[in-house]
Design goal:
With 146 residues, the chain is of the alpha+beta class. Helix content is 22%, strand content 32%. It has a 7-stranded mixed β-sheet with strand order 1-2-3-4-5-7-6, sandwiched between helices. It is globular and about 35 Å long.
């Protein structure tokens, strides 16, 4: 698994991905995948993406500059197959090399227990909880030193 530059082709593919409810809040419909986004590939080709910067923030959260926000996703048919830990680890390694942040921050929907377990195994700790200003959905914020 490795991070490569986002291309127009990769971005167009990601924009078509649809997740089943309640994960549909992660659909990238209409998202601008040109700034802060990178493709996640392996021998199968495009399997996901990682993002770094403000895109990882959810409206309604209280964010500051103490950590680099990061997020991402896997191709819908690859979710739940145990790839999350490697995907996030690959992103964190890339993020350290590319951005040298003091810490990373991830905002995850409260219902997404799978993702929360993975980030906790990677050393993230919950530091905040809030309701999104867009739809009232609850989110948890996790941080860890880089």
């Amino acid at each position: 698994m490795r991070i490569v530059p986002m291309t127009a082709e990769y971005a167009a593919d990601i924009a078509t991905w649809r997740y089943p409810a309640p994960y549909d809040c992660y659909d990238m419909t209409g998202a601008d995948l040109t700034d802060g986004f990178y493709a996640l590939v392996d021998d199968r080709g495009l399997i996901g993406f990682r993002s770094f910067g403000p895109d990882g923030r959810v409206p309604g959260g209280d964010y500051d500059s103490s950590a680099l926000d990061t997020g991402g996703g896997l191709r819908p048919e690859l979710t739940g197959q145990g790839l999350g830990r490697e995907a996030i680890s690959t992103g964190l390694t890339f993020g350290v090399r590319q951005f040298a942040p003091p810490a990373f921050r991830m905002t995850i929907a409260t219902f997404n227990v799978r993702a929360q377990k993975v980030v906790q195994l990677l050393g993230f700790r919950a530091v905040d909880h809030f309701a999104a200003s867009t739809d009232g959905r609850p989110y948890d914020v996790f941080t860890r030193p880089a």
